[in-house]
Amino acid sequence: MFRNLIGPRAVIRPTLTLPTVVAPSAIARWSKRGYASEAEEKDLVIIGGGVAGYVAAIKAGQEGLKVACIEKRGTLGGTCLNVGCIPSKALLNNSHLYHQILHDTKNRGIDVGDVKLNLGQMMKAKDTAVSGLTKGIEFLFKKNNVEYIKGTGAFTGEHEIKVNLSEGGEQTVTAKNIIIATGSEATPFPGLEIDEKRIITSTGAIALDKVPESMVVIGGGIIGLEMGSVWSRLGAKVTVVEFLGQIGGPGMDAEISKAAQKTLKKQGIEFKLNTKVLGGDTSGEKIKLDVEAAKGGKQETLDADVVLVAIGRRPYTAGLGLENIGLETDDKGRLVIDSEYRTKIPHIRVIGDCTFGPMLAHKAEEEGVAAIEYIKKGYGHVNYGAIPSVMYTHPEVAWVGQNEQEVKASGVKYKVGTFPFSANSRAKTNLDSEGLVKIIADAETDRILGVHIIGPSAGELIAEGTLAIEYGASSEDIGRTSHAHPTLSEAFKEAAMATYGKAIHF
Ligand SMILES: Cc1cc2nc3c(=O)[nH]c(=O)nc-3n(C[C@H](O)[C@H](O)[C@H](O)COP(=O)(O)OP(=O)(O)OC[C@H]3O[C@@H](n4cnc5c(N)ncnc54)[C@H](O)[C@@H]3O)c2cc1C
């Protein structure tokens, strides 16, 4: 039986200002029972209005739950809409256009005159996209009867949250079910103090007011490479320092990672792999970063105007009052949950970046929907084996499922089919044919285990791979499916054909 639907009815009420003569026992009784009007009662309160929280709130509204969402930022959409996915993609898109106009028009028969960067306008275009989308969420809240409480929430009891309202004052919220969706923050680098001007995280990297002459990016993961690409295209000399022997993080297929590094290097980004940063000195005009080989040995000092710290993100639960209800985080700062997102206090669930799994907006979104389904119906669904990853550089890199090194390590017998975009008619027509599609399938059953793409629109093409894995498709299923001509998706079909037989055009 689903226990969470049974319990005291949720109540939202302003904190009572009590005369000092009221006995503490009476206060405790009041705060347990609540003195709100019936109209204010809630079934669910969500702390955090990021992708996980706002999606859960909208879904809860659609399911007929009385729901409130507490967000302290002042706008909805969390990291993703305000300082993450959306602003970074706005800058990636426009910096790519700028770079293309500078370097890739003549052979297309387009003569351009004086091309100038207007960084202020590029930032404005980004801000317009962000504000349009965050306001859109507010509209969706209204449409789906979600109450939006602006402020910082902290637990004062297992069913009770005190909100420090952004406009001043306090409000106490009680609810039958609570979802924590407080997200993540950039992991700091010990010894380098973030000022978001010279030593920056991705938040500073989407808001610089001039193009730095030189930028060192600490960390060659997706965020570091995306933001490094933006500033390299706009004219900065970018050096990426990465502790591991490959870029893109451990999830990226090693073959694809090598190809990505090669193209980004051609675009002017320098890489120092197997290298660790020891520390930095910010006292001079240039920042001085001491680095050495990861295994010890050769040391050198890198000069930079700006250092981007992009060594990962960590769950954010500060100030949430977890100690008041006895909830703890693990050694990585994640709130511990079961397969239905429940903490050890079953009516308190956790979704998104502040718990397990990849820190991705679409993963957070899936969990938002599933958590509400568990509350409302007792069942939900997220396939963690079919969550795609995308790096929005040019060319883009996208993958889903297992990479070759993972399949090899699992001991499963497998086969690989690849198809280069240089043999794809649409890519050739567009004069944008770098990259390849790589499909890994089980050697015995032909079931697709992983899809890895580097190339134009890889982030769009990966949707087909994700669907294939979700439905347990074989490479032959894909190879025998008609794909429109001429499209980039034909490269996907041909890679599938190469997996169980032979490609036609290569
Ligand atoms: C530069 C960058 C680029 C990215 N690009 C992509 C991408 O292209 N694709 C992708 O899938 N992912 C991307 N991500 C990751 C993505 O942004 C996160 O995975 C996603 O935002 C997680 O959603 P969330 O709701 O769990 O957390 P968040 O989006 O972090 O939202 C949590 C919210 O909770 C609020 N909050 C915290 N504590 C409290 C409290 N006590 N009271 C009230 N409110 C509180 C915070 O203010 C925040 O708004 C990117 C991230 C960054 C930094």
UniProtKB/TrEMBL annotation:
Give GO cellular component annotations, separated by semicolons.
mitochondrial matrix; oxoglutarate dehydrogenase complex; pyruvate dehydrogenase complex
Which residues does the UniProt record annotate as the domain Pyridine nucleotide-disulphide oxidoreductase dimerisation? Answer: 387-496
Q: Write down the PROSITE patterns for this protein, in alphabetical order.
A: PYRIDINE_REDOX_1
Name the domain of life this protein comes from: Eukaryota
Query: What enzyme class is recorded for this protein?
Result: oxidoreductase
Q: Where is the active site?
A: 485 (proton acceptor)
Catalytic activity as recorded in UniProt: N(6)-[(R)-dihydrolipoyl]-L-lysyl-[protein] + NAD(+) = N(6)-[(R)-lipoyl]-L-lysyl-[protein] + NADH + H(+)
Look up the record and give one Gene Ontology term from the biological process aspect: 2-oxoglutarate metabolic process
* Cofactor details (free text): Binds 1 FAD per subunit.
What family is it from? Belongs to the class-I pyridine nucleotide-disulfide oxidoreductase family.
Q: From the Swiss-Prot or TrEMBL record, give the protein name.
A: Dihydrolipoyl dehydrogenase
